[in-house]
Structures
1.
Amino acid sequence: FGSSHRGSRPHRQRRCQDPRSARAAEAAEMGKAGQARNGVKTFGKTKRTALKAGEKKAQSPAKLKKNVEPGSVLILLAGRFRGKRVVFLKQLESGLLLVTGPYAVNGVPLRRVNQRFCIA
């Protein structure tokens, strides 16, 4: 990129140790009045439910179109094999559809396809 592009990028600032962080631990023990007096305000903030480090939000499985069943013929609308008729095998956990040509018939290998890019 040129120098003109570089100027518009927001720069990350270094985080230094906050002197109030030591006082924040103490503030948890004192009441609201004590926090207000000492300049450490930990009350009045809305609480957020934080996910733990290894925990992920549970995804609901994607709904399958009503007229798509294993063995049905789909037509691909996008990608390298657009316009090809393929056989639907199964729905993957991610919500994508597993389809095949079969490869020997029309050259479409096993592929993962989004439901939006196929017609049943």
2.
Amino acid sequence: PTSPEARATSSRAMASAVGAFASAAHQCAIRPRSSAKAFCSVVKLGTFCRTVVWPCLPPLLMYQYIRGVDEDKYTTELLYYKSKSKDVKAFHDSSRIGASGHWRGPQGLETIRS
């Protein structure tokens, strides 16, 4: 059990620390605008990001998504092959919409229902 004065002092210390952190973060954001050269470098960095980095992101993200889907499909095919089963629809039912055709989807739904 701490006294109300101790809690108030602790709260003030916490507020002071948060204020100091916010002030430091604000200074880091404002510092590049302090001179014309620094402002110019910020503009150059923004232009570089807009013309080089940003256009590269969508294809890179799409590539990663395709790799993930391909790996998942390969794993399903490998599982089907190793099981020596003749029932393809037990592993991936293409007549079902979206991920519900995947062999784990219906199993997970049955687990949730029971």
